[in-house]
Amino acid sequence: MRTRLHGRGALFDADPAGLAPRLVGLVPGRHRAHPLEHPDEPPFVVLTGARGLGKSAVLDALQEAYRGHTPVALIDCSATQFAGPPAGRPADSWSPSAQALLVIAEQLAEPVTGAGRITFPRLMSGLVAVAAGGWGDAEAERIRREVERILLLNERGPRIGAFAGRWAGKVAAKVVAAATGAGPLVSGAIEATLESVAEGFTGHKHQKASEWYRSYPNAGGNAERGLILLSQHFRDGDGSREHAERYLVRALLADLGEAYTGFMAKMQRLGRPLVLLDNAQTTPGPELTAAVLRDRAEGTGDRVVFVAARRGEGRAELPNAVRRQLAEVARRTGWTPDAAPSSRALLVALPPLSADDTLHIVGALCADTAVPSHLPAAAHRLTGGNPLGVVLLAESAAQHLPEVSSLGELLSAEFRPAEDRPGSPVHQALLDRLVPAAYLEELTVLAAAHDHESACALASALLPDTFGPADVRALQTLLAEEGLPVVPGQFVGDPFVRTLLLLRLHLRDEDHASWRRAHETLIEHYAEPERAPYRLYHELALGDAESAVARLRDDFADADTRVWLRTLRFIASAPYFHAHDAEGRDFGGRGDRRAAVALGVTDTGYPLPEGVDAVLHLRVRRLLHALWELTDPLVLPDPKVCDRLRFELEQLSNLRPAAGALLWRASRDWPAAALAGRPIEGPADPEDDGRGEA
Amino acid sequence: MAGGMGTWVREHVWEIPLRRYLSLLLAAALVAGGVFGARTLMHDDRRCAPGVSRPAGSDECVGVATGVYDFGQPRFHQVVEAIGRENKGLKSGSYVTVALMLPFTSTSTTNLNDIEHQLQGAYLAQYSANHDANGQSPQIRLVLANSGTGKDSWRPTVSQMDGMTRSADRLRAVAGIGQSTDPNQAAVAALTKLGIPVIGSSITADELANGQRGKKADPYPGLARVAPTNTDEARALASYTKAKANRANENKAMLVYDKPGDPYTNSLKQSFSTLMNGSPYQPVLEQPFTPPADRSQEGTTANTFRQITNIVCDTPRDTHTILFAGRHTQLRQFVNALGDRGCMDRSFQVLTGDEASYLTYEKELNRDALRHNLTVLFTSLAHPDAWLKNPPKTGGSTADYQTLQRLLKTAEHKPAGPIGPVALDDGQLIIGYDALQLAVHGIREAVPEGRSIPTLADVGLQWPQVKGSLKVAGASGWICLDEHGNPYDKAVPIVRLTPEGDSQFVQLAWPEGKPPGKDCLPPA
Fold first, then answer.
1. Cβ distance B93 to B109 under 8 Å?
2. Is the pLDDT score of A402 beyond 80?
3. A1-70+272-351 has which fold?
4. Which of A456, A601, B156, B219 has its C-alpha lying 20 to 30 A from A433's C-alpha?
5. What domain of life does the native source organism fall in (chain B) (predicted)?
6. What is the spatial distance between Cα A96 and Cα A80, in angstroms, rounded to a whole number?
7. Residue A327 touches partner B, C-beta closer than 8 Å
8. ipTM
9. B17–A113 CB contact, under 8 Å
10. Which residue of B has its CA nearest to A70?
11. CB-CB under 8 Å, A32 with B10
């Protein structure tokens, strides 16, 4: 099987080999060995990126590619099962890490082509010892339930069938008897477990396993004592628990190492086991990562391939990690660890999709529909290559084409993830997965802001009083940690997310009250004349272009042409959602008035202000509307409007011969950039930071 | 799944070392098994029994049967079983092997009768040698060697026997051979060339003998014969008729002969001509006939014989003897023609060689002819009645023959028998018995002092010594060999064809005209 992921060849390619086959030692989807790039110790790979970049999809594809060929475990650290202890289980005998180890081992135990189940006697003993710490007043049934699941880790027989869990059942009965009987509870359970391990399996390997805890610090060469100490440390919490948890991680890796040691293992097993941690930024991800990295740095090597996926770059947790772009590791990682534990991690940033990948995805998902030729390019321009955005847009298009074809309509159309599941608007579905759910409301409002101050103004006007400036800062930091780009001049740096949030803001109320309120607040906030472009920007967002046209018309003769063009671009980048009338309300129909204005269709009926240069005023008005439309991420560039833009800029260059070169240059560059879906910039000005300050 | 079977094998077997090596082992075992199986199958396909197989391109089972095998002939079954029992009782190392080489797979009933009887006789001789010889060594193991009916079918058998001379089988002699045919002649040449002693039982042709006129060296060194040559038979017949002629004074004879003739008829004609020169017989007429090339076919000779019959009636009235030098088909046509002759009042006797024995029980023979003044006399190799009444003092004895009779009695029941239905008329049993007796004699005489097993070469050197007190007292008469291995003055029974279809013993005749002396020494 080949993965259906697009744009991730650097990971999954078979020939030449991508990162995954070089680390795991198996060709993806095949039971075929591949030479290892790091035969001694593989790097702990951490995929980084913001939400929606396809990290989970990559991990799913890895699991799919290697399942049945080599032991694979995939856990989502943000899953509820790791959030807290199950009902009835005391917190001091449970931790997310211990639970994660149990789940990982359960998945790794599954038989693969050519080799049978892997047993985890060390981890099993350790987990029983930990669980036994919480059986103080538990009833036998709960103990049996808990211990049986752990004991199945050491079961060699099949999971299903007549013999499933026979050994585990027998031992569980003994452990339950020991735990509920008289005498010290923990040691009784441990004793019964260790005895069963030693009795039930007489092989050399199990002998070794039952003696493994002898080396626990202060155990004095007594495995039972070691396990009692482990249980005690776990219950003590904090640093002691961390120590115990690290020992449990080591137990898992030692059991895995045992399965890969010896003649028969070499004869039966290909490649390396693979452990996949999704959402590794949440507990127990960082703990497991730290434990593995620390053991590796200390020389307790293992041959397990870890691939974690985390939001954000994790610079605080993994300061010395080797960082690469995905394309850089396509053929070799160039990774060499140093003394620091975190240097054993290899952070790989997942890039957005290319325009070609977008085209392929839209083609694949809309295979049964006739897709308008502009749609893939438009989707890529809007999403910036965000895989989740591209996929959901394409799926929405597959559901709504050909009735609905503009991006704005596709985003507000209802999207059903499956036939039998309730639908929601596409932009809502995207926001659910692209921004932290807890802050969706706040972000919806603050998306209109440009900086901290404007955000605070919006917050005080539209958000509850409990959300103060400190919370605004905290939210800003959170966005940066999540991996969203920090862009000066925008509170929400990612243009796609910002567009979605603004759309949500616009649609929040029937009469767009919130939307209007937000922009009116900012118009007020930017009252000072020197911040006029911001004011004009928000006026334009509310559909009022008059002030902006007047200001641009008046400035044209005297202002620095470069600044004038920059101001024009900034004001024109105001958001635009479906048409408004003069009062800012929707008028019926789906037409976009900007194009009409830009093409001069409305000029005759337009009431010119008195005493102005009519030609220049109309030209600036047409130019502003043309540019407004062409910079709108939700609308595809219209060649006619592009042509008009070129024409108007040319005409302006005639009006100001001194600045003619710049204007003429813009008349060439801007339509070309708009048609190509590139951001409209320049003419060449390296210091241009995008802010339209005059 | 892309790639299908190849991919599956690669990924589920080849890539996993354990499975790869196990499957290689399995594949190797399968290939080995396949090769072994195929070879066994191919081999079995050509195998009939231990030592016996079908050569490529033939369906005939040839070779030397080292186990109990009747060559697919149920009539041999009992005697083959008896031989098997006898062989099984021999202690390893104490025996030598004698092969009885005959065309056991023949389809001709006449031949099969002869073969069955010779086989019975050979077995009786083996039994006697192993049980009644006062512990003489070595013991004798008898095996059946099929020379087949094809032109070259004897070849594998002969090479097999050559190998057996050097193996634990210790083959020391080959007896039997059968009729005087070209393949048999080639087989004898090959055997003697390999240094294997051969004892011919029923070969009579002069060509298949050593020491014949005009030949300097013996062509078959190590060949001994039990039966007299055609020439000796003719001489014995002549001596018989001479005695008769003298007595009856009816001394006119007529010669009817095959022209151009074959080895048998030519040597017979030659002998008859010699006989008439300077004998009481006055040649009245020599009358040739020309049979078809295959002398077992009818051809047009019946007409010729009707004309000859007229000539017979035109001969002088004292002509009573007709000498016939021809094969049995022509003899039958001639006798039938004589049955219709015009001169029924005249009596005639037809004298001929042992070919006439084929006319016993011949359905197309006009037996009525024999009731009207017509007698057919011929020589036989042996006859059960030859030694019972008034035997001569030398040349054989009733006692020697009665030894065989006692053996026959023994072989009616276990442990020696049963050996199947026995018939002695044709003499084949007696001659088979004598041939093996001669072989045993040669082998035991060749045992060096203090040893129990003779060398192969020494056995063949014994033949010239078989005379005097070392003669073999056969059931068919004394067997004294000359220096070329041919019997000297061997008793030749003269036999008469009866109207009932069988043959009746007339009297013994002798090639030398009289029985040999007491010492039975051939002239140097």
1. no
2. no
3. Rossmann fold (3.40.50)
4. A456
5. Bacteria
6. 10
7. no
8. 0.73
9. no
10. B16
11. yes
Compare all CA atoms of chain B with the CA of A269 and give the residue at the minimum distance: B16
Q: How many CB contacts within 8 angstroms connect chain A with chain B?
A: 30
Which residues of A, range 393-422, sit inside 8 Å of B by Cβ? none
If one counts every other C-beta atom within 10 angstroms of the C-beta of residue B392, the result is: 16
The residue extents of the domains of chain A are 1-70+272-351, 86-269, 355-422, 434-676
Interface of B with A in 8-67 (CB under 8 A): 10-12, 15-19, 21
Q: For A223-267, what is each residue's pLDDT tens digit?
A: 888 888 998 899 898 899 999 999 999 999 999 999 998 888 889
Local structure of residue A17 (DSSP, 8 states): B
- Could you tell me which chain A residue has the CA closest to the CA of B22? A267
* Contact (CB<8Å) B18/A264: yes
HEC letters along A63-119: HHHHCCCCCEEEEECCCHHHCCCCCCCCHHHCCHHHHHHHHHHHHHCCCECCECCCC
What residue spans of A201-237 are helical by DSSP H? 204-210, 223-236
| CA distance from start to end of chain B | 97
Question: What does the pLDDT read at residue B269?
Answer: 83
DSSP A479-539: HHHTT----TT-SS--HHHHHHHHHHHHHSSTT-HHHHHHHHHHHHHT-SGGGHHHHHHHH
Distance from the Cα of A366 to chain B's closest Cα (Å) equals: 25
Cis peptide before B55 (omega within 30 of 0): no
The CA distance from B25 to the nearest CA of chain A, in Å, is: 15
Measured distance CA(B398)–CA(A301) in Å, rounded: 109
Are the beta carbons of A412 and A503 closer than 8 angstroms?
Answer: yes
Angle, CA B232 vertex, CA B229 and CA B236 arms, to 5°:
140
Q: Which residues of B touch A270 (CB under 8 A)?
A: 15-16
Question: Nearest residue of B to residue A114 by CA position?
Answer: B16
Dist. CA A459–CA A521, nearest whole Å: 10
Task: Band the pLDDT of A483: cuts 50, 70, 90.
Answer: confident
CATH 2.60.40.10 fits B231-380+493-509, yes or no: no
* Token pair listed for A329: 């590791």
Instruction: Find the CB nearest A32 among B11, B17, B19.
Output: B11
Q: What is the DSSP letter of A14?
A: B
- Distance between CA atoms of residues B117 and B42, nearest Å: 36
Cα(B189)–Cα(B181) distance, rounded to whole angstroms? 12
- pTM of this structure: 0.64
Contact yes or no for B12 and A266 at CB 8 A: no
Write out chain A residues lying below 8 Å of B18, CB-based.
Answer: 114, 264, 267-268
Residue in chain B closest to A270 (alpha carbons) equals B16
Cβ neighbours of B17 in A, within 8 Å: 266-268
Using the structure block, give the residue that is written with the tokens 């015009």: B342
Q: Residue ranges per domain, chain B?
A: 54-227+397-488, 231-380+493-509
**Does the fold of domain B231-380+493-509 match that of domain B54-227+397-488?**
yes
**Subunit contact B11:A30, Cβ cutoff 8 A:** yes
Residues of B with Cβ-Cβ distance to A31 under 8 angstroms: 11-12, 15-16
Q: How far apart are CA B188 and CA B172, in angstroms?
A: 15
Closest Cβ–Cβ partner in B11, B12, B16 for A268? B16
The predicted structure's pLDDT at residue A691: 42
Whether residues B16 and A32 touch (CB distance < 8 A) is answered with no
Calpha distance A261→B324 (Å, rounded): 102
pLDDT tens for each residue of A277-289: 999 999 899 999 9
Q: How far apart are CA A165 and CA A158, in angstroms?
A: 8
Q: Which residue has the tokens 């641009």?
A: A552
B457 alpha carbon, distance to own chain's centre: 23
How many angstroms from the chain centroid is the CA of residue A29? 25
Rounded to an integer, the average pLDDT of B511-518 is 86
Using only the alpha carbons of chain B, give its radius of gyration. Answer: 28
